Amino acid sequence: MYDNLINEIKQRQLDRQEQFTENESEAVKKIPIASWLHDPDSFNKEQFCKETIEFLFAIYSNAADIDKHLVAMLADTLETYIECKKVLDKQGYVIEFNDGKTLGTNPIYKTMDNAVSSYISQTNELQISLKARVKNGVKEPTEMDESIKKLMRGPEIYR
Mean pLDDT over residues 137-156, rounded? Predict the structure, then answer.
């Protein structure tokens, strides 16, 4: 009885993933897809930290040295989410308990959900969440004027 239900749930999850992949090309035009989405093992915390610091500097034109700790915690939180997602993709979101007598939510899901909440809280603290940027009227780096773009590219050396 439970086997059929679990299989149905897994099939719905696979169907959603296929649908997401089909619609992905439209989304890429607006927001690039995270490099680790299809290959969670490719997530690189150090690269994530560098990208986050660059983004912070690009939108706020300054950064405090102390923010490095919050950025590192943000990377750890995202890594926790990704690791939980990998386990849930293998085990499923609904699993059997009591020797197959009971179905329930995989306990890993709670950890993943906590990581999402923590990630949102940390991005709000850094003021890099969409909500914080909109609230503060922050222009995205793509909206910077040409003089700021030139400054962000660094020195040009002519030979």
Answer: 59
